[in-house]
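Retro notes, structure queue

What went well: the backlog is down to a handful. What didn't: a couple of records were mislabeled last round, so from now on we paste the full input next to the output in the thread. Example, using Small ribosomal subunit biogenesis GTPase RsgA from Streptomyces sp. R11:
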Amino acid sequence: MRRYGKHTDEDDIRTRPGRRNTRPRTNIRPKHEDAAEGMVLTVDRGRLTVLVDDRIVMAMKARELGRKAAVVGDRVALVGDLTGKKDTLARIVRIEGRTSVLRRTADDDDPFERVVVANADQLAIVTALADPEPRPRLIDRCLVAAFDGGLEPLLVMTKSDLAPPAKLLELYGDLDIPYVVTSRDELENGGAADRVREQLGGRVTAFVGHSGVGKTTLVNALVPEERRRSTGHVNAVTGRGRHTTTSALALPLAEVDGWVIDTPGVRSFGLAHVDPSRVINAFPDLEPGTEGCPRACSHDEPDCALDEWVAQGHADPARLYSLRRLLATREPTEGD
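Corresponding output:
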């Protein structure tokens, strides 16, 4: 509180200016109809690398977007300096609608979901057949995240020279998931990369897998080093390019029209955000049978109508077992 003496000057007294001297507030935001369109390639500490036409542009999010954040794969609208020259910075003023989202939570008790990738068509789940051993529950969780987010799954099995794929294929046979089997020798010679590339043409594919399964080796085989340098991350401070496995990175495929999004290795895949009613959409042969289910049915309880639907011969019992196995991954277990 300001105290005044006996002899105060009128100029010392602060008065609030009238309405005529202030700029009125407004909720109207500029439409930025002339903004350029781009695709987010990577995000690092508030700086986004965006592909605009054939130029790599560094950008930051406009304040008017509030808490809404852009992620790798997002289609965005930019204004400002779009030359892509060193020490220039554009501004992202709009994030366009997403066709799909790959989301995860830190664990199954975490209420806050994180969007990892946007607008991907396909999720390539990379798993080694040995060294390290396959983790079916993690694969199941990735499948649930794919079905929930609107991505088509692709199972990529590596290191087939160390163990055969038959046992793992039997576990996922009833899901009708496309798959590719690779070996270390094939990756070095390029044959395996060619077979994987055939599954990626014309699509945006996010790669996910835990450390040591050969995901980065496979991405390196799919995307030549010169293309990685031309589209990889540019440090906003030093201006030097670097690729880091701590953040997702979108890379253009060679020889085919498509994109690979390399994501960091995962130890767990929280599914707190997943609604069972969305996972059932990936099972069109079972979905009609849910009409008689009780409200908020988990599809794995005594009153679930799917049991009767399958008993009447409308679907294969193995498909119902697969659905329930996937939904069961939402329940955490020790060692998952």
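Agreed that this is the format going forward. Reviewer comment attached to the example: The chain is about 20% helix and 20% strand.
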